[in-house]
Specification:
The complex is a heterotetramer. Chain A is an alpha+beta fold. Helices cover 33% and strands 25% of the residues of chain A. Chain A has a five-stranded antiparallel beta sheet with strand order 4-5-10-6-7. Chain D is an alpha+beta fold. Chain D contains 21 helices and 27 strands. Chain D is globular and about 90 Å long. The chains are: A alpha+beta, B alpha+beta, C alpha+beta, D alpha+beta. Chain D: This is Aldehyde oxidase and xanthine dehydrogenase molybdopterin binding.
Chain lengths: 286, 158, 81, 754
């Protein structure tokens, strides 16, 4: 086993691509070290990307935000600009684990760990976030929902690293929100979760919407029918009812140690409805 | 497996050590440096007993590799008191009997110190959520919360 | 002569009796005579029997005297946390 | 022993104050040494290989590859721990649990162990051990295990306690029965009868410190063991017996203990560490991972309980009965028996009958957990009591007060009660402001009572007075939550000196006589009794020395407020001699001054509590929030009230976790699904409110200061108190613990008919 700390993306990509055995990228380490501890993975090479220039920064650009792959969720919570524009995304990031874990964990790690219950992913999917990927073949950008392909699996090729998550600058009258259900008040993995992102017109009618659900299918679900239930309407009781019903119906959950199929179905609708209400209020809707 | 040489700062002192690439900072502190104040309650970031402060960030040392400490600042429970003068949090934990078995106590003290550094006047709810990453099985948290409240008021007055 | 009350399971071994009369001055003698009269008690005595005398539970005190007229109650020995 | 333990009703100076504990500074500075904080030169790392199967015959274990790995110093299997238990069935079970012999009996059962130069080598060595298993059918559910069709876990078990000796083996090891009167007749007199079945899932003590020890066996057959334990003398007996050693050649030092709650009352990996050290000829440190703690130590029983209670219109209970089925893991236990004894202990009943069944399942060996077995029984009984009160139309507190046991009541487990506190805790709860506080929407209030026996047992202390007059108190009961502070207070009280002048330490097994472990809420009860006795013995010597210094008869010297006083007018000119002054002269008056005591502390007073709580339920998700919680409990006498409160609060918090979210979840494959703090959900700080406490002091007549044990009773009422509150908030009776959100939501939906 080797531990390296490259100073550039090129070096990191080269080392990863050239590594003969299994290689692991270390950013926050809150998933990697747990898997190593449990004996589920014994990498031959650990590539610590935190020394790479710019990877621990949140940059504001003309287009929006670029959140470096090694930015801790705690740091995201300290960015007033990000919090103002994308409160739902920040909320989701700040729900991962404890304060201690948030001091280390990253949304890129959360995405690449590819758990269907990852907290930040439904919020990122609802937000229409994109991942900037660097690899041996150069750079490419994909929507975040294209990264996880199943529990623990991603579409990243050998040698590819996500450099940053990109979030758009917000249109006026936009708001997002994320809610998850856990049995305790903290420290649990989401049993079911919902992210909602809305933009309203001047009359408070929903112009565009994205609704994503977590922990109810092998990957996070972007529920287009749920968005359709909201678009063109104010957030009245009928729209919310329809949203809840569509979300419950869209779930393909399993029974496991964290919850039952029935529970996840029912609560997915409840959370979508509550998150939509918050997002609507944040967008200035009344 | 090649060892990694690390030069770091622990509680203000320069420290050098050699560790394995897969060794956690918790293991380094406890087994190589004899700093056994941080405890391993789970090894997976779920209990907070191994809490330390790394470059002003509260982290679980079981989720940090020893190799990652290169060039950084590590603060542990062993550095909390100044000589024979206890930190107000330590003093208040004693006065309120905010510990029974005491194995979670170093982690709680470090987490509470970080909490008060960022929020000197927390509400009860802020304390409870701020310390949610530290498990205590003995006290029911009541006296811990009271000790932190009391320490906060003392530290504000100081 | 003291009257000794048995808990349910021990009563079954004593032929369904819930009380037995024993001529015993202390706990040691009580156990010895119980084992003589009811050989089925022996494994229970080996495992540990507690004796409640007027409501106070004694676990290991052979020398404890059994006052005349006192309520003597046998109980299984317990585990605690 | 010439010691009078009777309550004397004195006024206290030190007892009842709240000083800082003697081990406090070490614990807030990280200096205190727990099980894993100790190291020996040349120590090896021990690790255990565990069965992935819930039930399997071990056909063969091949350790040859592991032994050849560079850095491996010893590999052991059951062959290295031969059976020396000589027909002692309980010890054989402990041995088999430490290292599986013929069969692996649960997921996590130890099958082999290694000692190597470092953790990485030890881990690799485990992978090289080849175990040939024949997987057998398993059963993890307590009700399933009782069926005739269930896989048999041990074909040598024939149910004990049946009227007719069974002809077929069974997973039920024992049937027990308690009670008095005629329940059939009693139910005939009832106007109302409530009958319900309840289930509780298995929980773990959840101590934050995993089991850890360092074992060092020397070539001359002597050995040292450093270990976190609730009872180092008991560990010494167990280890010595299992390893064929003489007890006095094994010195056991108890480290600071990071929680036990019953889970550290018998050995798990310590005999394995000693066997590894013996084979390797070097010290071995063995620390369990959290995963191992959950899979292979601790847990309490899972239960299935039927309750039936009948009452007249006026609220008098006429009959009560319960059938209790408790899981024991794969070894016989007495868990249902204790449940059967405690179930109705709070009440004055003319007709009562309880029946307990001990059931073997493919789960880890059940261990004691804080008032073991009582919380589950109380959950079932107190839920039914609440429901019955509702049917009759009585206030639940009034209904309980009307039926509460009192001095002279025949307890449901047999003996007649002395002075007890159930009535006063109920009255205090009734008058508590909490009872009158308003409730909001979706909120409910619940209350429940709880009982625990409390133990005494074998106890030994040494009290040594230094020449500077400071007092060293050596006790043999492990300090699990502040007892060194309470015992120092007791020594100071009895000697009449300042608390600061006393330092209590926990002595190792070679420095003090045998002590039973710290369990059954006995630590402060028993060791304070022994401390008082030791102090009285020391006082006698102090008086003798004073008499010598004054050259007057001993009978003329009395001990008051830390001083020897010459009694009588003829001594009017003699100034009182302080303990310090007598100690300073001790070298000339006969040498060191000490008081020793050894006794069996009998007469632990039984303990009762009443808890009240408010819960809010989210009817759309089944989520719960604990809004307010109040504990009222009888302490007999609170020696250090802050630590008494701490015990009340801690027990309540554990009970709240059990009630709401904690449970062992097994897959169909018999493997534990949640062996970690992530999915075994103990309460976090933000889950709980402040926990209000009210200490009542109804003196225990069998202790000089009136002390009762306080540690365990507080975990008994919460399951029921919360279940009653949730049931009131959600409008549906909850019968399955834990009341996790999916269970609550399913119950609400079922009630709605949807």
């Amino acid at each position: 086993m080797r531990y390296i700390r490259p100073l550039s993306m090129e070096d990191a990509v080269g080392q990863l691509a050239g590594s003969p055995g299994t290689a692991a990228i270390l950013a926050g380490g809150s998933d990697l070290l747990v898997r190593m501890k449990g004996g589920f993975i014994e990498p031959d090479l650990i590539v610590d990307i935190k020394a790479i220039d710019g990877l621990v920064e949140i940059r504001e650009t003309a287009e929006g935000f670029s959140i470096g792959a090694a930015v801790s969720c705690a740091l995201m919570g300290e960015s007033a600009a990000l919090m103002r524009e994308w409160p739902g995304v920040v909320e989701a990031a700040k729900l991962i684990g404890s304060k201690q874990v948030q001091g280390r964990c990253t949304i890129v790690g959360n995405l690449c760990n590819a758990s269907p219950a990852a907290d930040s992913v439904p919020a990122l999917v609802a937000a229409g976030a994109r991942a900037l990927i660097v690899g041996p073949a150069g750079r490419r950008t994909v929507v975040v929902e294209a990264v996880p392909t199943g529990p623990g699996k991603t579409s990243l090729a050998k040698g590819e690293i996500i450099e940053a998550i990109l979030l758009d600058r917000r249109a006026p009258r936009s708001g997002d929100a994320y809610l998850r259900f856990i049995p305790r008040t903290e420290m649990d993995i989401a049993v079911v979760s919902a992210g909602v992102n809305l933009t309203l017109d001047e009359q408070g009618v929903v112009k565009s919407a994205r609704v994503a659900l977590g922990a109810v299918a092998p990957t996070v679900l972007l529920v287009e029918e749920a968005a359709e239930a909201l678009i063109g309407r104010k957030l009245d009781e009928a729209a919310l009812e329809r949203l809840a019903k569509v979300c419950s119906g869209a779930c393909r959950p399993i029974d496991d140690k964290r919850g039952t199929i029935e529970f996840r179905r029912k609560v997915a609708g409840v959370l979508a409805r509550r998150a939509a209400t918050t997002a609507y209020a944040r967008a200035g809707g009344k | 497996m090649a060892g990694v040489a690390v030069l770091t700062t622990i509680n203000g002192d320069n420290v050098e050590y050699l560790c394995q690439p897969d060794e956690t900072l918790l293991d380094v502190l406890r087994d190589r440096l004899g700093l056994t104040g941080a405890k391993e309650g789970c090894g997976t970031g779920d209990c907070g007993a191994c809490s330390i402060i790394l470059d002003d960030r509260l982290v679980c040392s079981c989720l940090v590799l020893g190799a990652e400490a290169e060039g950084r600042r590590v603060e542990t429970i062993e550095g909390m008191a100044h000589g024979d003068r206890l930190h107000p949090l330590q003093q208040k934990f004693l006065e309120h009997a905010a510990l029974q078995c005491g194995v979670c106590t170093p982690g709680f003290l470090i987490a509470a110190k970080d909490l008060l550094a960022k929020n000197p006047d927390p509400t009860e709810e802020e304390i409870r959520f701020g310390l949610a990453g530290n498990l205590c099985r003995c006290t029911g948290y009541d006296k811990i919360v009271r000790a932190v409240q009391d320490a906060a008021s003392v530290m504000k007055g100081a | 002569m003291v009257e000794v009350t048995l808990w349910g399971s021990l009563g079954a071994i004593a032929g369904g009796k819930s009380k037995v009369e024993i001529e015993a001055k202390d706990i040691r003698e009580l156990f010895r005579k119980l084992a003589e009269q009811y050989p089925g008690f022996e494994p229970y005595i080996d495992r540990g029997i507690a004796v409640a005398i007027d409501g106070t539970i004694y676990r290991d005190t052979w020398s404890k005297e059994l006052p005349q007229g006192a309520e003597i109650f046998l109980l299984p020995r317990l585990a605690g946390g | 022993m010439n010691f009078d333990p009777r309550y004397s009703g004195r006024n206290f100076t030190s007892v009842g104050t709240r000083p800082i504990r003697p081990d406090g500074v070490d614990k807030v500075t990280g200096r205190a040494r727990y099980g894993a904080d100790f190291n020996m030169a040349g120590q090896l790392v021990g690790r255990v290989l565990r069965s992935p199967h819930a039930h399997a015959t071990i056909r063969k274990i091949d350790t040859s590859k592991a032994e050849k790995l560079n850095g491996v110093k010893a590999v052991i299997t059951a062959a290295d721990l031969p059976d020396l238990t000589d027909g002692d069935a309980a010890m054989y079970d402990i041995l088999d649990n430490c290292m599986a012999r013929k069969k692996a009996l649960y997921d996590g059962h130890a099958v082999a162990a290694v000692a190597a130069v470092d953790a990485r080598t030890a881990r690799q060595a485990l992978k090289l051990i080849e175990v040939d298993y024949e997987v057998l059918p398993h059963v993890t559910d307590v009700d399933e295990a009782m069926k005739h069709t269930a896989p048999l876990l041990n074909d040598a078990i024939f149910t004990e306690g049946l009227e007719e000796k069974p002809v077929r083996p069974s997973n039920v090891t024992k049937r027990t029965q308690f009670g008095h009167g005629d329940v059939h007749e009693g139910f005939g007199q009832a106007d109302y009868v409530v009958e319900r079945s309840f289930k509780t899932e298995q929980t773990h003590q959840g101590y934050i410190e995993p089991h850890a020890c360092v074992a060092s066996v020397s070539a001359d057959g002597t050995a040292d063991l450093w270990v976190c334990t609730q009872g180092h003398f008991v560990y010494r007996q167990h280890c010595a017996q299992l390893l064929g050693m003489e007890a006095s050649k094994l010195r056991v030092t108890s480290s600071e203990i990071g929680g036990g709650f019953g889970g550290k009352t018998h050995v798990w990996a310590e005999p394995v560490a000693l066997a590894l050290s013996r084979k390797a000829g070097r010290p071995v440190k063995l620390v369990m991972t959290r995963d191992e703690v959950f899979r292979a130590s601790g847990p309490t029983s899972a239960t299935s309980i039927d309750v039936r209670i009948g009452a007249r219109k006026d609220g008098t209970i006429t009959a009560a009965e319960a059938t209790l089925r408790y899981s024991c893991g794969p070894y016989a236990g007495m868990w249902a028996e204790i449940g059967a004894m405690t179930a109705f202990a709070c009440y004055r009943l003319e007709n009562v009958r309880t029946v307990g069944y001990e059931v073997l399942v493919s789960r880890p060996k059940t261990a004691a957990y804080r008032a073991p077995s009582a919380p589950m029984a109380a959950f079932a009984v107190e839920s039914a009591v609440d429901e019955l009160a509702k049917e009759i139309g009585m206030d639940p507190v009034e209904f309980r007060i009307k039926n509460a046991a009192q001095e002279g009541t025949r307890s449901s487990y047999g003996p007649v009660y002395g002075p007890i506190g159930i009535g006063p805790t109920l009255e205090a709860a009734k008058n508590h402001p909490h009872m009158k506080a308003p409730l909001g929407k979706n909120q409910g209030r619940g209350m429940a009572c709880g009982f625990w026996f409390n133990f005494g047992g074998q106890t030994c202390t040494d009290l040594n007075i230094g020449m500077d007059g400071s007092v060293s108190l050596a006790v043999g009961t492990v300090d699990v939550g502040g007892s060194r502070a309470s015992l120092s207070l007791v020594a100071a009280e009895e000697l009449g000196i300042a608390y600061e002048q006393v330092k209590a330490v926990v002595a190792d097994t070679s420095s003090l006589g045998y002590n039973d472990m710290t369990d059954g809420s006995r630590g402060t009860f028993s060791s304070s009794m022994a401390t008082i006795s030791a102090a009285r013995n020391a006082i006698k010597i102090l008086r003798e020395r004073a008499a010598q210094m004054w050259d007057i008869p001993l009978d003329d010297v009395v001990w008051e407020k830390g001083h020897a006083i010459a009694k009588g007018e003829k001594y009017g000119n003699l100034a009182a001699l302080s303990l310090r002054e007598i100690a300073a002269a001790s070298g000339k008056t006969g040498g060191p001054i000490a008081g020793h005591s050894e006794l069996v502390a009998d007469g632990a007073g039984v303990s009762f509590a009443t808890h009240v709580c408010d819960i809010e339920v989210d009817p759309e998700t089944g989520a719960t929030r604990v809004l307010r919680y109040t504990v009222v409990q009888d302490a007999g006498k609170a020696v250090h009230p802050t630590y008494v409160e701490g015990q009340y609060q801690g027990g309540a918090a554990q009970g709240i976790g059990w009630a709401l979210n904690e449970e062992y979840i097994y897959g169909k494959d018999g493997r534990l699904q949640n062996p970690g703090f992530l999915d075994y959900r103990i309460p976090v700080c933000s889950d709980l409110p402040m926990i209000d406490t009210q200490i009542l002091e109804i003196p225990n007549p069998n202790h000089p200061y009136g002390v009762r044990g306080v540690g365990e009773t507080s975990i008994v009422p919460p399951l029921a108190a919360i279940a009653n509150a949730v049931s009131n908030a959600a409008g549906v009776r909850m019968t399955h613990i834990p009341m996790s959100p999916p269970r609550i939501l399913a119950a609400i939906e079922a009630e709605r008919g949807g």
